[in-house]
Amino acid sequence: MRTKINIAVIGAGRIGRLHAEHLAYRIGGARLVAITDLRKEAAEECAANLGVPQAFQDHRRVLDDPEVQAVVICSSTDTHASLIADAAAAGKHIFCEKPIALDLAQIDSALDTVAAAGVKLQVGFNRRFDPNFRRIWALVREGTIGETHLLRIASRDPAPPPIDYIKVSGGIFLDMMIHDFDMARYLIDDEVRELYAVGGVRVDPKIGKAGDIDTAVVTLKFANGCFGTIDNSRQAVYGYDQRAEVFGAKGMVSTENNTPNRSRLSTSEGVREDLPLYFFMERYTESYLNEMNAFIECIIEEKDPPVTGQDARVPVVMGKAAGLSYEQNRPVTLSEIS
Amino acid sequence: MRTKINIAVIGAGRIGRLHAEHLAYRIGGARLVAITDLRKEAAEECAANLGVPQAFQDHRRVLDDPEVQAVVICSSTDTHASLIADAAAAGKHIFCEKPIALDLAQIDSALDTVAAAGVKLQVGFNRRFDPNFRRIWALVREGTIGETHLLRIASRDPAPPPIDYIKVSGGIFLDMMIHDFDMARYLIDDEVRELYAVGGVRVDPKIGKAGDIDTAVVTLKFANGCFGTIDNSRQAVYGYDQRAEVFGAKGMVSTENNTPNRSRLSTSEGVREDLPLYFFMERYTESYLNEMNAFIECIIEEKDPPVTGQDARVPVVMGKAAGLSYEQNRPVTLSEIS
Amino acid sequence: MRTKINIAVIGAGRIGRLHAEHLAYRIGGARLVAITDLRKEAAEECAANLGVPQAFQDHRRVLDDPEVQAVVICSSTDTHASLIADAAAAGKHIFCEKPIALDLAQIDSALDTVAAAGVKLQVGFNRRFDPNFRRIWALVREGTIGETHLLRIASRDPAPPPIDYIKVSGGIFLDMMIHDFDMARYLIDDEVRELYAVGGVRVDPKIGKAGDIDTAVVTLKFANGCFGTIDNSRQAVYGYDQRAEVFGAKGMVSTENNTPNRSRLSTSEGVREDLPLYFFMERYTESYLNEMNAFIECIIEEKDPPVTGQDARVPVVMGKAAGLSYEQNRPVTLSEIS
Amino acid sequence: MRTKINIAVIGAGRIGRLHAEHLAYRIGGARLVAITDLRKEAAEECAANLGVPQAFQDHRRVLDDPEVQAVVICSSTDTHASLIADAAAAGKHIFCEKPIALDLAQIDSALDTVAAAGVKLQVGFNRRFDPNFRRIWALVREGTIGETHLLRIASRDPAPPPIDYIKVSGGIFLDMMIHDFDMARYLIDDEVRELYAVGGVRVDPKIGKAGDIDTAVVTLKFANGCFGTIDNSRQAVYGYDQRAEVFGAKGMVSTENNTPNRSRLSTSEGVREDLPLYFFMERYTESYLNEMNAFIECIIEEKDPPVTGQDARVPVVMGKAAGLSYEQNRPVTLSEIS
């Protein structure tokens, strides 16, 4: 008989519902036993749809349940650090959506609790599990392209979020580019030592009025001597643009965007392919499933999680360094921050 | 509260298990209530894995159950026609894997029963639901490429089936090209009037000894004046090759194979992309899910199924015409067969 | 000091001017010494533009000139056979545009004269020298794709020629598909034994009234067991469509159309590439230059021409076989014709 | 009768011979009347090969010849500025290979002479005439992609030059990236205000010992608010990598590398395309021809040259700014240099 991990999802918003569906139906090693949400009806509706036996308003109900072995934290960002601490203290393994917090002291405190409790913590940098980026990573790791010299990441959203979200987002470097900071570390398999950020308001003046920028380019210097660039835009009118390229001593690997089909239409106007998949729910479906499978597998097989607490911390440091670099228009070393 | 159709799967082989998994977990409008298989352990194991309440050896158990509204027939081909008749007589809606039978009289008899019973019948030409081919179909239907002039289908398996299978398969035209005959009718949205088949043993002499060929090309004349070609090979060493192209008065649309990722690796050896997805379970995952969703939807919304009994019959006629054409090395009209 | 072949061009029409320009400027081993044309001003204008010393109305002037070592015949098709005979009798090496004639007896007579005179004859099947098709040929020849099983050629013009041209063209199989018959033999490096042709009027009813068809598909059986299809259309609205694909035991090679640039434009409408190069003067520029270089080289190095008289004859046989097959709607063996 | 410009080429090295061949044969508006080179045999051999009437050791011979209307300066870089001054003083129109000089005072002095003489000066930034980059430029200019937000240029040589060349090259920013600085200004159609350079020795330690770096990334801030990155490597093992991408408010346009053919080979190993054209002589053949045609046209039609003296000056300023930025690891404004 196959081992099944009893697991609960905390937070029944969009991403919580996605993870819940995967855990209910598509991940053989998991048994989804409860869903919680501060809005109890949300938890109940989600549980009913998926045939999950329990729904609670209070997450303590699952932390106090000795049958629950692991939790998936999908609540709002400001609750992540304390929920991690609570869950670790209760001896639960933890999958937490990124970021843990935007405050480094809070992150460190949460990670300390996890270490003390000896539970597993995996953070939701799902893009690492996308087949395109995973292919680059594998080719770099196995040495196919040799020592890495150059990295390029293009990461552009199809449309900006609401201005109210922008105001509380922490800014483009911590809200949007944080994913790319993680990707850069992942693909090069090395740490960044210094970075330099430029940017501006090119998409929507309202974003500027809200105190943020919507277009940014960051240059990275890695410890191993590789150089990288990341560009972000809050609005690519052709859809979600998610590409990366690594150039090394023995070759180069790059990825194209995923499209809904592989058709090519030739008319008197030109040869046309369909647009990239629109946004992260479409593009990264497979990666969300893969990351959760990996989490369950690391519990069952008692392995280290593939995305650690340290992996959660460093991109926050990089985001803060990028913010400082942008403000002062100078290169900033990561050691200035952490 | 959402309507759910109570459904049972008959046959727990590879394709039966696939449909069962989709019905159990991924199709909101269905409730999978039972699985049957002549090998009772197979039915029981599948039911246990998916949390399905009932498993039977005898398919009569589900036909006799008034709660069951629909069945999915995934048993061996020689049982399809009689199971359709039984299920129709029992008032169940029917999804049946292709082909219904290789004998036209059996097909006609089964279709008569379905018509008499007034139940819905959908046949498993799943490739119609593949996003690539669906895109071609849509562009043809909406007139984007104008009147159709030329069709090309390449359909090549990664490796031949076992020789024992070849012997009972009905031959390449009825076993393999039957999918492409359906695709041809689907993409051009018209009927073939005449065809001409050539072929030979190019892959494995054992296939020739078993009385079949492994490589074939068929030319089609459609009623609307379009011409088409289909080529089949039992072995494409680079994987499952499934492409189509339609050329018309206003343009041309073609599709590439699906790949596991969109990476491009440039080394001193060349620029390399990954091979196509290996075989139908990988390539057509999405189409299997889509076809079952469409079946459930046509029951709930009381619509006609998107793939009808007639759609099941015609490709068999075409396969027989192709066999005759190949034997006699002459063009054969479909009216000679049906 | 580099050897230079003294050469004259007969016929200063579009293709004659193209060859003359190449011979005057871009082919190191040739010295273009004269141009002739029945319209003397055409010859003179061309000679003046290119700085060629002599221009004549009468091609005998170059055949009688002992300094002239080779001629390039670009006059109208009906003059090719007699010009070949005259040039051969005068001891000149001959490059002749295709076809030599549409009458096999005329071709054979011309080839006999060439053989008796011991001069070299190369026929203008320029597409063999296109880098795309040459790449396929090389991969087939070096065994990279193994024994050949399937061939597909798509060959579609951007727009039909004038109806007056259609009337005297010899029909689609001898006027247009003749290039593809040559390509088929070239790519598979083998002879066709039998073929089957279908076709119709899909582009313009005027073509039908002129006694021709504008859309055709031919199935080929090669002596080595390979099967092939060729499709032709007189009008691809997206431009000149010239693609081929060879599938074999060890792999498959295919080619895309050439485009004026490699840009990709992504907007909210889709991802767009530019159309293929419009027609043969743009697409096959390089192949025209390459074939003439090869001709000059075979004279200087006393080698056999890469496209022989037999290569000129067989496609005419195939064109006639295709015509017969189309008329009688049955497969025709080449031995019925030649 | 067509106007022809009498022109002379100064310097019969690799690039001089290329321009001479184009002027002799492929540019209708030019008559190549003389070639000069300090090595007289080089001039004579080139003239003999191309049928050019005069060859000289001393460039004064062509400057003193009143029949000569224009000169093409292809001698070594250190002679460019004085040759421009001499030619301008002699009233000749001037095409000069880039760069004019690495010293800004020398450039300014040369440009002053040109202005005073009222002759035309075009500088050899040939890549602007490449069909790929020209396509991007046109789409930006016509507003198809809207206001520009982001620019990415990848520019990587297939192999480093000899170390002896590296030592006198002026360094990667002035020798190699200078082309990309020009390209950046061209594609965005705007000026850079500030840049930031990083780089290192990743390819060959000998380059480091020679006082240069071989890998570099520069971030650009344009006056119009666009941001750009350029990356350079002295060694891309897969060949000459020359791509650009511009992202704007209404879309994105990018270009792929040119390849010798458009074949795709599918075997059990993967799907393979051929490598990019190896180096600038292959990749930019067409652009060299186009730029010279443009120069001749601007003389005949009395238009302004498409690449001006200012276009020659600014990339040198940018190269110096990049060098300073790299040395001091800080952003540098162009106004600090010029």
Task: Provide the structure class of chain A.
Answer: alpha/beta
What Rg of chain A do the Cα atoms give?
A: 20 Å
Extended strand count of chain A: 15
The helix tally of chain A amounts to 13
Largest interface: A-D, 38 and 38 residues
Mean pLDDT of chain A: 96
What is the overall silhouette of chain A? globular
Quaternary structure annotation: homotetramer
Q: How do the strands line up in the largest sheet of chain A?
A: 12-11-7-10-9-8-15
**Portion in strands of chain A:** 15-25%
The low-pLDDT segments of chain A are none
Please outline the helices and strands:
The structure is a homotetramer of 338-residue chains.
Chain A lengths: L4 E6 L3 H13 L3 E7 L3 H11 L3 E3 L3 H4 L6 E4 L6 H10 L3 E4 L7 H14 L3 E3 L7 H11 L6 E9 L6 H6 L3 H4 L1 H12 L3 E9 L4 H5 L5 E8 L4 E7 L7 E8 L2 E5 L7 E5 L2 E4 L6 H4 L1 H16 L8 H20 L3 E2 L5
Parallel strand pairs in A: 1-2, 1-4, 2-3, 4-5, 5-6, 7-10
Antiparallel strand pairs in A: 7-11, 8-9, 8-15, 9-10, 11-12, 13-14
Helix pairs in contact in A: 4-5, 5-13, 6-9, 9-13
